């Protein structure tokens, strides 16, 4: 195991990787319930989407660990499932079978781009300062997700967002955040995972022993749930290739590409998972895994699979090799039958981990030369737009465009690679089509 995953080489151990894998799984496991709740609005059976979600998450994460040997989970992507439901099925008035076909064909395009190493060239086209900014932006994004899940920040029509009301759940989150922070600060092994367990236990009395009248956060909903394979191979491969659906395939390709690329780059920069050239480790194999995941998603009945930013939870817990992803992927598999168990871990229990990961991922921002404005402005735009638009894709695309424009304006055309110009063209096309 050590020789295959390179545990000693990466300064890790089996126990550390297992703890990291469990941590990443707990931070990501919400997708097992959330993905079906979104996609089922199209008429797809909830239990069928849940089964498809588990299959994609299990297979893709294990493949990422064994083949690409990276500690990054792959699962159906948030945002991509909303695009599938509201923009494709409802917006274009096409059936979910046709939408699944579009997912499949976008995966084929991913695969071809990866096989011919085009996606790797795209990664290398991202200027290094923008990589630092993307890492920081993803950190802010993850923090925002955590704060939102805990209702620490809530929508406000007057100020966009504001501090949420003081409730038993919010106080439990705050307690969990400080306990987790202290554990991590003191370098307690598995501190993030212990923090998740602590917050879960602390949430149990809510609605029972205190905060009576509020919702009970932890409740038993049963143990077993039989898998539903009714969505397997229900995609429409023919009608999904019609002219009207081709822009959808392009949108899936574009969105998933930059979500996965920015996740790989951001986590690699934050955790120093880089090769001798300073590029993310095993990037070609990682991108091939992402492509296979999307193709598989179309076949089994889900929105596209993508690399998960919540993998940073496991990376910060010490995960440095593919063993982390393998452990996390294996933990998905039992939930083909045990999905109700996920109700035991509430959102406020993983929220402290997400907030602290933001602290860790913002570290590379100090590597940006903020006095060099033609670097600083595009980096700032990319960094803030990721959380402000709630989209990694928007942050990195506007970062690209602003980098190109400002470098041209400052007479530094040599800092704009041909690959970046090609990316900019596709970005503009996507903005026009969208």
From TrEMBL:
GO terms for cellular component: plasma membrane. Its main location: membrane. It is found in: Cell membrane. It comes from the Bacteria. Signal peptide: none annotated. One of its GO terms (molecular function) is purine nucleobase transmembrane transporter activity. Keywords: Cell membrane, Membrane, Transmembrane, Transmembrane helix, Transport. Belongs to the nucleobase:cation symporter-2 (NCS2) (TC 2.A.40) family. Azg-like subfamily. This is NCS2 family permease. It comes from Arcticibacter tournemirensis. The lineage of its organism: Bacteria, Pseudomonadati, Bacteroidota, Sphingobacteriia, Sphingobacteriales.
